[in-house]
Design goal:
56% of the residues are buried. Helix 2 runs antiparallel to helix 15. The chain has 19 helices and 10 strands. Strands 1, 2, 3, 4, 5, 6, 7, 8, 9 and 10 form a 10-stranded mixed beta sheet that branches. The chain is an alpha/beta fold. The protein is globular, with a radius of gyration of 22 Å. Strand 1, helix 2 and strand 2 form a beta-alpha-beta unit. This is N-acetylglucosamine/diacetylchitobiose ABC transporter substrate-binding protein. It comes from Streptomyces plumbiresistens. Keywords: Signal, Transport.
């Protein structure tokens, strides 16, 4: 979600999801989304004649970053923290000692930066994530972003004979391509989504991770008899549910079902695989396997309850290990699995998982020193910076490697194993990148959230979500995307 979560730092700051209001359950468009859409309707600002001149291109500075120009970097202050970025900034400052870097971190990306986009004075590099994530489709559609192809074609930081693009994990470049060849986004983290659990807790029930839904229900019933809920989730932010539900739909019906949903095709949500998976999840509610009070819990509260052993399973992304490090017991033995399927008739094998780029970095088109922003990204995509990130935040990066010599934490080790098990069976739904409001407020809060709270039947939820998708498809003010 762009997909890391906000730190619960106790400062009273607004978390990444705090702006998603319950009124969205009525299908209302949130004020921040509306204001940003209208703000981006005009390009804003002038032609930015004060852009930094390009510096001399050398072996150590292949992009030609101006070695005396200032560079501004704004990071989303979320579950990954900011230390990894600060460390990368120090390398930039060492390489360009005459250049002053202005670094800041905030959870309020949109409200902080929207006025600056309007004025034509955006920063040079932005980690566009969190509840106030700016809509990437809108930004690209209004020519607000810089094509990052020069970065991808530049020599990598470690090996001048290898381009940056050749050092990245499969699918990362394609994720940044919203429509055609330009690459507007560099997803820095590599997130494994799925069902997270304590191996110790499963062992104590003499159970193994369930591969079919009948097995899932049996494990949940076993847990219920011990006073443990089968599942919990971020009830206030139910767009977490797709982290396991979407790959389950792909497993049951094939990746083409997910592609049809992403493409906003008519009746895509009415596919039998969607109905089967919605029915399965609703059964968790109907049989009392959801932790009591879950619909009122935020991400931190649900993760804390789960970490304390009140529930077995939680849908989440690989940032959860770092974000919940202060509440996960030392002997928890954190693990992640691909979602449970329905049965042997599923189109894809057990192990089919959602893994994709996270933490979307962008360089604004009107940035004064966009080349400097791209150079900062080139530094971050080095093996050393990648290892630093993985060591500090317990998650992988877009760099294809960076784990050699690192002692992997339980969750990270499990995530790597899950990727190995999946092999080519990795799915990557794009709704959360292409249509932020549709995914979070409408499908998430108004659809899935209401269903899992028992206020909608699966059939009613599907009908409602399909109507939202159709509405988005017909909205000419929204730029639409399709799988190529």
């Amino acid at each position: 979600m762009g997909s890391t979560s906000a730190e619960n730092n106790g400062t009273g700051g607004v978390g990444r999801r705090d702006l998603i209001k319950r009124s969205a359950a009525l299908g209302l468009i949130s004020v921040p989304t509306m204001s940003f859409l209208s703000a981006c309707a005009s390009s804003g600002g002038d032609d930015n004649g004060d852009k930094a001149e390009t510096g001399e291109k050398t072996a150590k500075n292949p992009l030609g970053a101006n070695d005396t120009a200032g560079m501004e970097f704004v990071l989303f202050d979320g579950g990954f923290g900011k230390e990894y970025a600060e460390d990368a900034v120090k390398i930039y400052e060492k390489n360009f000692p005459k250049a002053k870097v202005k670094f800041s971190a905030t959870q309020k990306i949109q409200s902080t930066l929207q006025p600056r986009f309007n004025q034509g004075t955006p920063p040079d590099l932005i980690d566009n994530s969190g509840a106030e994530q700016m809509d990437m489709g809108v930004l690209a559609g209004k020519n607000q972003l810089t094509d990052l192809t020069p970065l991808l074609d530049a020599p990598s930081y470690d090996d001048p004979n290898k381009k940056v693009r050749d050092t990245l994990r499969p699918g990362i470049v394609e994720m940044g391509q919203l429509d055609g060849d330009p690459v507007w986004i560099m997803y820095y983290a590599y997130t494994v989504y799925g069902v997270w659990y304590s191996q110790k807790a499963l062992d104590s029930l003499d159970a193994t991770y369930p591969e079919t839904w009948d097995e899932m229900l049996a494990v949940c019933e076993k847990a219920k008899k011990q006073g443990i809920a089968g599942w919990t989730y971020a009830g206030k932010y139910p767009y977490y549910l797709p982290f396991s539900l979407y790959p389950m739909i792909g497993k049951v019906g094939g990746v083409e079902v997910l592609d049809a949903i992403d493409n906003l095709e008519p009746n895509a949500w009415k596919h039998p695989a969607v109905k089967a998976c919605f029915d399965a999840y609703y059964e968790l509610y109907a049989k009392g396997y959801i932790l009591k009070g879950t619909p009122g819990l935020d991400h931190i509260q649900s993760q804390t309850a789960w970490a304390k052993g009140k529930a077995l399973f939680i849908p989440n992304g690989s940032w959860v290990e770092n974000e919940s490090a202060n509440v996960i017991p030392a002997d928890f033995n954190l693990a992640v699995s691909a979602p449970t399927g329905i049965d042997s008739s599923d189109k894809m094998p057990f192990g089919t998982i959602w893994a994709s780029g996270g933490e979307p970095f962008i360089v604004p088109a009107k940035a004064k020193n966009g080349t400097g922003g791209m150079e900062q990204l080139r530094i971050m995509l080095s093996e050393a910076s990648s290892k630093n990130f993985t060591s500090k935040v317990k998650s992988l990066t877009a760099y294809n490697g960076g784990t050699d010599g690192i002692t992997l934490t339980p969750g990270l080790k499990s995530g790597v194993a899950a990727l190995e098990k999946a092999g080519d069976n990795v799915v990557n739904p794009r709704l959360q990148d292409w249509y932020v409001q549709l995914q979070k407020e409408k499908i998430g809060v108004s659809g899935l959230g209401e269903m899992m709270a028992g206020r909608l039947t699966p059939a009613e939820a599907i009908k409602k979500i399909q109507a939202y998708a159709d509405e988005t498809a017909k909205d000419t003010s929204i730029k639409h995307y399709k799988h190529q």
